[in-house]
Structure formats: C-alpha cells, structure tokens
Here is the input.
Amino acid sequence: MISLSDLVKTFHTRDGKVTAVDHIQLTIDEGEIFGIIGYSGAGKSTLIRLLNMLETPTSGEVVVAGKNMGRLTKQQLREARQEIGMIFQHFNLLWSRTVKENIAFPLEIKGVPKAEREKRVNELISLVGLDGRGGSYPSQLSGGQKQRVGIARALANNPKVLLCDEATSALDPKTTDSILELLVDINKKLGLTIVLITHEMHVIRKICHRVAVMEHGKIVEQGPVLDVFKRPREQMTKEFVKQVTEPEETEETLKHLFGADGIGHVLQLTFVGGDAKKPLINDIIRTFDVTVNILQGKISQTQNGPYGSLFIGVEGDRQEVQKVLEYIREKHVSVEVIHGE
Amino acid sequence: MSSSLFSLAFVRLFPNVNWSNMYDATYETLHMSFIALIFTFIFGIFLGLVLFLTAKGNLWENKVIYGITAFFVNVFRSIPFIILIVLLIPFTRVIVGTMLGPSAALPALIIGAAPFYARMVEIALREIDKGVIEASKSMGASNAQIIFKVLLPEAMPALVSGLTVTAIALVSYTAMAGVIGAGGLGDLAYREGFQRRQTDITFVATVIVLVIVFIVQLIGDLITNKLDKR
Here is the structure.
C-alpha cells in the first residue's frame, strides 16, 4: 500500500543543514496498522508529512496506493490526497463550521453534490459515535469528540490510507483508549491501512500490528509488535518497551525488597504470546524445593497476543534455584536475574 | 418635516444651527463613509490576501510581490490624510471629473483607508492556525478553496472588527475631506462653526459624528460576536 525508498528530507536552518529523514526504506501493507515511534525531533512528523507530500522529499520516492506521489501534477496530487485521510494532534477543525459542516468539508473539496454530502455526513457521524452533535461547533466539544470529528472528516472521501499525526497525544488516557478503539474498529470494518506516529508505546501496544522505531531520522528497528517487544535490540527500543511492560516505579519498589526474608533471588520473567497462559509458577512450586514469592506483574494485550512481565522472589538452595532458571528457559519464557547472583 | 420640528425645539439652544443643512451634511458624511467603506473592504481584502499569501512560508510565497505590495501599503498608510487629499487632486479630477461634492473625496478616502484595512486583514489571516491550512491541504483543497472556504471564513470575526475600526477612521477622514469641498459634517463644523464662530454648529456636528461612531461600533461588535464561534 505504501512504499518508501531511499527517502531523504533535509531542512536548511540558520544553524546549518538538518536531515530530518535520512534514507528511509519502508513498506506498509494493505490493511495493517503501522506505528512509528520515536521521541520528539526523531523526524517522525516529517516522515508522515512526506507520505501525502505536505513536505516535498529532498530525494527518494514515496508510493502510496500505486501512485508515485512525487511525480504527480498539482491536480493529480490533490486527487491523490483525497484518498489519504489525515488526523492531527490538535484536531485542526474549522471553528467557523459546525460538526456536520466540518465533516462535509472534504466532500465539498471533491465536489460531491449536496444531497449526497448530507447522506454521507450522517453515516460518518454515526460511525464515529457523534449522533446528535452534528449542529455543535468544535468549541462546544471535548477533546475526544473533536478527534472523532477529525476522524469522520478524514474518512469522508473513503480513503485507502489514514495518517495519524500524534492523534491521541493531546487527550487524557481514557479518551485515548476510546479513540484507539475507534481506530481499530475502522481498520477492521473498512480494511483501511493506518499509519500512526506517536511517542507513546502504549498506543503501539494497543493497536499496531507492526512498529518502526525512529531515531535521528533513521528507522533503527522494525517488525511485528510482539517480536519487537520480545527482543528489542536497540537501547531506544528497550526504553520504549519498558514504558508498557513494567509497571511504573518497578525498580524503586523492588529495591526495597532486595534482601528481605524469603526473597533470595529476584527474577524477571517475560511472557510473550500464548506463554502468558501457562501455569508456570504452579509447576515451579510443585517441582522444586523453593519458596516463590510474587512481587509484581503486568500483562498487556497487543494486537498479536498478550505480553507480560512478572517479578518473583525465589528463596532456596543455590542449585535448586539454578534448576528453576533452566526449567523456566525450557518453557521458552525469557528470564533475567535482577537481584542475587 | 422632521427638520422643522427639530428647529422648533432647539431653536433657542442652538440659534445658529440650520437643521436642514445639518441633515444634508449628515447624509453626505454617511454617504461618503459608506461608499468608501465598500471599496475599502474590497481593496483591503484583496491587498491583505496578497500580503498574507505572498509572505514567507505561505501558499504563494513571493518576495518581489510581497515587497512591492508592502511598500505601497506602508507609503499610503503613512501619508497624513490631509496631505494625501491634496496630493490626489489631479488623480481625482481624472477619475471623478470634478473636485466638488462628496464623490470627489472618495478616491482619497479609499486610497487612505484600504492600506490601513489591508494590514488588519493580513493580521487577521495570520492569526489562523497553520494546522487548519495544513489539514485543508491534506484533504486535497486547491488554493482557491483554501482562500474562500478556510482563510476568509475563519478570519471573519477579525475581518469584521477590523472593518469596524476602519469605518470609524473613515468617518473622521470625511471630516478632513471637507477641505477640498467634499461637504459633510466636518466641512460644516469647520466652515460654519469654526470660521464663523458659531460654536453651537460645531457642537451639534460633533455630537452627530459621535453618535455615528457609537452606532458603527455597536453594529460591528454585534456582528463580530455573532460570527465568533470560538
């Protein structure tokens, strides 16, 4: 659906040349939700704007839905953009228009007749769950509702691709979840390809099928979300993965327990996919002569299955503990001793 | 009829005031201001759009056109109005064909007020969130669609409040236009009131100008509030 080859974008600033996007190769398949994560300044905003030519590439090619975006005439580019919806962090609604008029805006641009516009707008209002709010002005809506209008507007012309530029970054956690659910819903219902950029791993975990990690204009790591969670290679990726797998302040909490009674070794077990359902702890207690103390744990759902980490304290004979470690590894659960040995 | 009623009531208070003349002068002031305002609006919007669109980082970024437009806007905005009228006498003769009557003041009024309004239009357009323009582009909007469906409607409250300020400035400009025999309240106040020491005429003319200004401001504020959905 989308393929980027050797894509480069440089900006000339007062302090010299800045390469925001540095020789990026990327393929995004039809119907997938693809996430790009990175800290601010990583170039992800520029990258997503290159997809619909809001930024023109310095070199390289962007192909979206079979169209080489850089080679289109102005008129062709406008038509191509009508097939690529985009939503924004700050919604970018027209405050002078009502919800209905905002959603009708892209239809007006395309030249859809009035009666048809009306019909389509009503469909979209229901799709995004804004029934009854059609006559309101954006200033009368909450952030979540505004983003729903943004989504309805982006979907008006039945696009093939939806670009999400930090679409949930200005929303509170609960609203973020409801917007993410809406995106998954749309992805399933309409088979829409979604590309989103974010700095929150939570968003990636919740809805993305594949993820790319961006740093200094380059994609440093990419793959299916679970794989990246399971084996993060880069330091950056590890930091992002930690955001969702470890409950907050895990380290501080656990440090207090180090050396306490019944906590000889502290192990971190990481479950990926189906592993999370195995009765591993039960087996350990039954098979080995050790005491097991569950300290902290968290399981998260991703689009490709569950992912979780569990911190346990194990007290027992050194050899016995060694056996426990081997046993856990045999079960394909990754384990790390974070205290004791 | 109404003028005779007024003169009966106020004849003692304002002995020198000829209410029929006052009425004519008020009409001339309103007439000049109104016609000038319409043209100022058209030219001001046009010039303001040119200034905004050709500025750095905008849709039609063009240093040359921006530079030339900004130069003329600044020049005509800086010339004191009284001097502008005199400078424009030959031009007015060609355009209007006469130097007498309210119409003769129009070219100077418009040329004086349009650049003033153009700057306010430019400021109003700059206030629009760049993200909204970006969103419109992402939807495949043409530049014409962006101008007429996004820029002007989104800036409308500011355009109207700017027009209110301009309208009030125009009313005071018309007073100065009396110098070239354009008529109106200012002319009356100056010739009949000041030069012939009939203070009551100056006073009444001033009050009428004030009332006009208040009404213009009131209407402008009402429309601005009605349009502003932020």
